[in-house]
Structure formats: structure tokens, C-alpha cells
Design goal:
heterodimer, A: mainly alpha, 2 strands, 1% strand, B: mainly alpha, 2 domains, 7 helices, 76% helix, 0% strand
Chain lengths: 515, 161
């Protein structure tokens, strides 16, 4: 036991030492600042920040690329709170809950205080999630090592189902549809077992399959450009930002909320594909129902800002847990991060601690340093942020397209990938307009190869029988979870149908009467 | 987002699409080569996906029909007015932006130098969006295209299309 602990401590300090190089620190400082700025601009989400800046990491050494991408990720999630508070338009969806109280505080002239609270609680959320990441991940590794083909297959299906369930409002079927469309997308190209071409329509370029990064850039980049530019949303910045740092009394009063929201954020983050926005909303809702100050939520309450901001940042560390142990991203930005580290040749999963023992600690240390930078930058840039937010989106958004084109092309040096990006961008835009969530689609594309191969191999090993699954406790747990999600999903769809049936009938009859 | 009252019609269209798509996927998967058994064949998992698509499509279509999706489609077809649709500022804006993106990706990139292609795209898009004055649009287009090209090729050694 002591030997194992000392061994882990040794790896930890090696990883710690490796991060304290001037280049790493400078890159991290720059990346977090870039992340904050991109995240603060309405319409540029944390996922889009990673999609845009991923191309800068192609030429970097692996360690620097990790540092850079995590810095952008942490910065962008926190950056969303500026625009949520100052102009009532969340910079990222994860800051939508922040806007509820933050903007009212800004109208009361306490915008600076709200931003300061958001920055400090974001830092606290990161600390909570890093603690969970370090102590929980080795435990999950030991469970993941017991995974066979059945478990991997069921895990992939579970991931898409739960993600589809959580990322849609009342109609989970829509989440599942896009999740399974993601699986189908991953089927395009040469089959992984026999190298048989599937759904390639005779196109040579499709034999290599649909590359992950161009598809992700399309879904999150191009569709976002169209969503933002389709209509003009004028906004005004309320007054000047003053008095950013909250008093110690305020900070102390927010500690219970921050702990509770941090734990909720980690938990939501660990659920495949759930994401920062869901974490923030759940923590906000739990805070509203359980806190003594709950009745003040939505009326300009610092605790509301703290609940949302702690949780959305805590999701980052939580999302890293399934990513590192099972190669299943916990959020859409984590999916971008996974795609980037695959490109650098690192394969997360149960074998990662054996193949790359220090990787977990490297990620945790970079996240810790990034959150320190976010704390410092976050408080420093609060006042000048007003100028950045004045940037016209009609100028900024068109500039993003060439960046997405470079990102798609440079990932595989293929012109075809740019066309893939465009196709997925338009598809993503149409699906988003029809209320389909994007996270299950991305998760489906990532997990598609795993679900296909593991299902076929599991069935071959058991000669087509499902009985061997009964002797696998983890498999049974996953299977029961999938059945429960399916049941609850169909029930919600039925409720949704019943709820809208009456109102729609009334609307149609009224229209007929008018016409 | 599309209004809830029109969502039932969209769901019905999607449901029908999924049923047809699922059928095509099943048909394609059954035509794929079988090496040892079907359980191990390249078409096995797509076959399962095809069944799932049909199942989800039926559920969506039934849910939509109960929400009077069919009546909404009928009403939509009766009241369709293409000239009004194209006069809708939001619709026209999205179509033109997509056309400009397609022009940049399919016509300009890979045929002419990336910097020139980007300058043309930015100029056309910024001009269409009336982002700022004409002089500023020209300056922003040229400067941005040049900066992006230089930044990626010189500082990060990333190849451009």
C-alpha cells in the first residue's frame, strides 16, 4: 500500500516538475487569456473556442498541445460569465444560468461584484473537480480494466442514450435520433474488422471514413456562425465595471453553495456528453430549492451566480474522468479535447495508466495551473472586457470561417475534409433549428467504431448468445441502466405528446376558423 | 428555434425520413459481404441501426400525428408562399450566407491562393452583412486574410489549403 502510494507520489512530482518550464507557463497564460476572450464573446462557445484554436496545437509538442488546449477550455468556460452578466447574452450556453442573477445584479450597479464572484467561484469549482479527478480516476481505472467487449458495447450505447436523454428538454427521442445518426456516421468507410467499404458510394475519399475533427468543427463552428448571424441581436453594455473583488464576508457565505455546486458539477461532468450547461442548470435548480437564500434566486442574488459558475467549471474536471478512463468524453468541449489528443497519438482508456502513467497527473496539474491563471486574468480583464464585448459580431463571425477551414484541412491535409466540415455545419444548423441537440451526435461519432467492433466481437465470442452477459455484473448494471433510460425517455415523450396535443389541436382549429 | 406549433409537422417529416432512411440502411447492410457469419459481418451493426432508425421514426411520426402534425403539413402546403418566404429577412440572410460559404469552400479554396480566396470571401460576406463602411471592409478583408495566412504558415508552420 505504502509502496503504491510512494510510486504514485513519484509520478505526480515528475509530472509537476515537467509543467514548470517557462514555455509551458507562458503558453498556459496565453491560452487561458485566449479562452476567456473567446468564451466571453456571445456566440463563441467553449467547444467552438477549442474547434477554432485546435489548429494552433497541431504543430506543438504533445505536452505543450495539452497545456494549450486545457488552458483554452478552462478559460472559455469561465469567460462566458462576462457577457452573461454584462449584456444578458451568455458567451457560452454554460453561462446561461449565470445570466439569471448576474444581469439583474449588473442593472443594480453590482456587475463588477457579480463578475468577481463568478471568477472566484469558477476557481473554486475547478479545485473541487481536480480533487475528484485525482482521487476518483485511479478507482475507475481499476473498474475499467475489468471491461470486456460486452461492457464496452453497453457503455457506448449507455453514453449515447443518457446524453440524448439529458441534452433534450421534453423529447429525448430527438437526442437518441442524433446519437444513432452519430453511430451511423462512424460506420462510413472501411470496416475495422474486414476492411470492407461501407456506405462509401464508390467515393475514394470516403473509404478513410469521416474524420472526427472536421465533423466536430462543422457541427460546432459553421453551424454556430449561422446561428449567430441569422438575425441581428442588438445589445447594450450596462455602465462601467467597478469593485470587482467581493469581500471576505461574501466569499465565506458562498462556500456551502460552492461545495454543493462543485460536487454536482463533477457528477454531471462524469456523465457522458452531459456538459457544462446542464451542470450549471442542475446546480442552480438544486441551490434554488435547498438554500436558505433560494427564494432570492432570479432576483439578483450572488449565490445564484456562484451556484452556476462553480458547477459549470467543476464539470471540466468531471468530464475528464470518463474521458481518461474509458475514452468517453463527459462534455462537447471534452470531445474536442479527446479528438486533439487522439491526433497526437495518445489513446485514453483503461490501458492509459500503464502506457502513460503520468498523463492523469499532467492533466490535473495543467487544470490547476489554468484555474490559477483564470482567477488572475478573470479579475484583471473584467474592466477592459467591456471594450472586447463591443466588437461587432457581423465582423467577427465571418472571420471564423477561414479559421475553421484551416482547422479542418490541417487535421489530415485533405481538401475533402473541408467539404465534410461544410456538410456537417449545414446539417448541424438544420438539426439545431429543429431542436436536436448536438452533444449526442458528437458522442455517437466518437463511440461508433467502439460500439460496432465490440458488439460484433462480443457476439462472436458468445456465438450469438446473450447468456454470457448474465455473468458480468458491470454489464448487467449498464444494461439495466439502458433499459431504465429507454423507459423514462419513452414516458417523457408520451407526456410531451399528451401535453402538446390539446394546445396544438386548439391552434389548428382556430387557424381553420380564421381562414 | 421553430415554434412548437410547427414542430409537430417537422417531426412528422423527420419520422418519415427516418423510416425510409432506416429501410435503405437495412437494405444496404444486407447486401454487404458476409465473411463467416452475419453476426460478424460488416453489415451487422448497420442492420441493427437501420431497425433502430425505423423504430425511432415510427415513434416520432406517431407522436407527431397525435399532435396534429399531418393537419399542420396540409395547412402549410395550402398556405405556402415562396415569394413571402424569400422576403423573410432571416431566411434570405441564412441562404445567402450559406451560398457565400459554399462559394468559398467549393470554388475559391484549392483553386486560387488561400489569402486571395479568403480576402474575396471576407469582402463579400462583410459587404453583404453591411458590417461597416466600404473602406473598412476592404481593409479588414485584406488585413485579416494576410494575417491569418502569415500567422499559420510562419509562426505555427501549419499548411494552408
Amino acid at each position: 500500500m505504502l509502496d503504491a502510494f510512494l510510486h504514485q507520489a513519484d509520478i505526480f512530482f515528475q509530472a509537476l516538475g515537467a509543467q514548470f518550464y517557462l514555455t509551458n507557463i507562458l503558453i498556459l497564460a496565453g491560452a487561458t487569456l485566449m479562452g476567456i476572450v473567446v468564451g466571453a464573446i456571445p456566440g463563441l462557445t467553449a467547444t467552438m473556442a477549442l474547434a477554432l484554436l485546435i489548429n494552433l496545437s497541431y504543430g506543438m509538442q504533445f505536452d505543450l498541445a495539452i497545456t494549450f488546449l486545457l488552458g483554452v477550455y478552462v478559460g472559455a468556460v469561465m469567460g462566458g460569465c462576462y457577457s452573461a452578466i454584462m449584456i444578458n447574452i451568455p458567451g457560452t450556453p454554460s453561462a446561461a444560468a449565470t445570466a439569471l442573477d448576474g444581469f439583474i445584479l449588473a442593472k443594480q450597479g453590482k456587475g463588477g461584484l457579480a463578475i468577481g464572484t463568478g471568477v472566484i467561484t469558477s476557481f473554486f469549482g475547478m479545485l473541487v473537480s481536480i480533487a475528484f479527478l485525482i482521487f476518483l480516476t485511479p478507482f475507475i481505472y481499476t473498474i475499467a480494466l475489468k471491461f470486456g467487449q460486452w461492457e464496452f458495447f453497453l457503455l457506448a450505447v449507455f453514453g449515447v442514450m443518457i446524453c440524448g436523454n439529458l441534452s433534450t428538454g421534453m423529447d429525448p427521442i430527438k437526442g437518441w435520433v442524433v446519437g444513432f445518426l452519430g453511430f451511423f456516421t462512424a460506420m462510413v468507410g472501411l470496416d475495422k474488422v474486414y476492411a470492407y467499404p461501407r456506405f462509401t458510394f464508390g467515393l475514394l475519399q470516403l473509404k478513410g471514413g469521416i474524420s472526427l475533427i472536421p465533423a466536430l468543427i462543422g457541427v460546432f463552428g459553421i453551424s454556430e456562425i449561422l446561428m449567430v448571424l441569422e438575425k441581428e441581436v442588438p445589445y447594450k453594455i450596462l455602465g462601467k465595471i467597478t469593485n470587482v473583488i467581493p469581500s471576505w464576508k461574501i466569499i465565506r457565505s458562498l462556500i456551502p453553495t460552492a461545495i454543493r455546486s462543485g460536487i454536482i458539477g463533477v457528477g454531471i461532468g462524469a456523465v457522458p456528453g452531459a456538459g457544462e450547461d446542464i451542470g450549471a442548470w442542475v446546480a442552480y435548480d438544486v441551490g434554488k430549492r435547498n438554500s436558505k437564500q433560494g427564494y432570492k434566486y432570479g432576483t439578483g442574488c450572488l449565490e445564484g451566480v456562484a451556484a452556476a459558475e462553480t458547477a459549470n467549471n467543476a464539470v471540466i474536471g468531471g468530464a475528464m474522468i470518463p474521458l481518461l478512463t474509458l475514452a468517453v468524453p463527459g462534455s462537447p468541449p471534452a470531445a474536442m479535447f479527446l479528438a486533439a489528443i487522439w491526433l497526437h497519438g495518445v489513446r485514453p482508456g483503461p490501458m492509459l495508466p500503464i502506457e502513460n502513467p503520468s498523463f492523469l497527473y499532467e492533466v490535473a496539474i495543467v487544470l490547476l495551473l489554468a484555474s490559477c491563471f483564470v482567477l488572475v486574468w478573470g479579475l484583471i480583464v473584467a474592466k477592459p472586457m467591456g471594450t472586447i464585448l463591443k466588437l461587432k459580431r457581423e465582423i467577427l463571425m465571418p472571420i471564423i470561417l477561414p479559421l475553421t477551414v484551416i482547422g479542418a484541412y490541417a487535421s489530415g491535409i485533405r481538401i475533402f475534409d473541408i467539404k465534410v466540415t461544410f456538410f456537417f455545419g449545414i446539417l448541424g444548423y438544420i438539426l439545431r433549428k429543429l431542436d436536436y441537440p448536438m452533444a449526442p451526435l458528437v458522442l455517437g461519432i466518437i463511440l461508433g467504431p467502439l460500439v460496432d467492433v465490440s458488439f460484433r466481437q462480443a457476439l462472436m465470442q458468445s456465438r450469438g448468445s446473450l447468456i454470457p452477459l448474465l455473468g458480468r455484473p458491470i454489464g448487467i448494471i449498464l444494461l439495466v441502466a439502458i433499459l431504465l433510460i429507454t423507459y423514462s425517455g419513452f414516458r417523457r415523450t408520451l407526456e410531451y405528446t399528451r401535453k402538446h396535443r390539446k394546445s396544438d389541436i386548439l391552434k389548428v382549429t382556430n387557424k381553420e376558423k380564421i381562414s | 428555434m421553430i415554434k412548437t406549433e410547427r414542430m409537430a409537422a417537422a417531426d412528422l417529416v423527420m419520422g418519415i425520413f427516418l423510416i425510409i432512411f432506416g429501410g435503405i440502411v437495412i437494405w444496404s447492410s444486407l447486401n454487404m459481404k458476409i465473411y463467416k457469419t452475419f453476426l460478424d459481418a460488416p453489415g451487422f451493426f448497420p442492420f441493427i441501426l437501420g431497425i433502430i432508425f425505423i423504430g425511432l421514426g415510427i415513434t416520432m411520426a406517431l407522436s407527431s400525428l397525435r399532435r396534429k402534425g399531418y393537419e399542420q403539413i396540409k395547412q402549410g402546403i395550402k398556405n405556402i408562399n415562396f415569394s413571402r418566404l424569400f422576403k423573410n429577412i432571416q431566411f434570405r440572410r441564412v441562404i445567402i450566407l450559406i451560398a457565400l460559404m459554399a462559394f468559398y469552400i467549393f470554388v475559391l479554396v484549392d483553386r486560387i491562393h488561400f489569402t486571395i480566396a479568403t480576402t474575396i470571401y471576407l469582402f463579400l460576406t462583410l459587404y453583404y452583412l453591411k458590417s461597416t463602411s466600404l473602406i473598412k471592409i476592404i481593409i479588414i478583408s485584406v488585413a485579416t486574410a494576410f494575417l491569418i495566412s502569415t500567422f499559420f504558415t510562419e509562426f505555427f508552420e501549419i499548411p494552408l489549403p
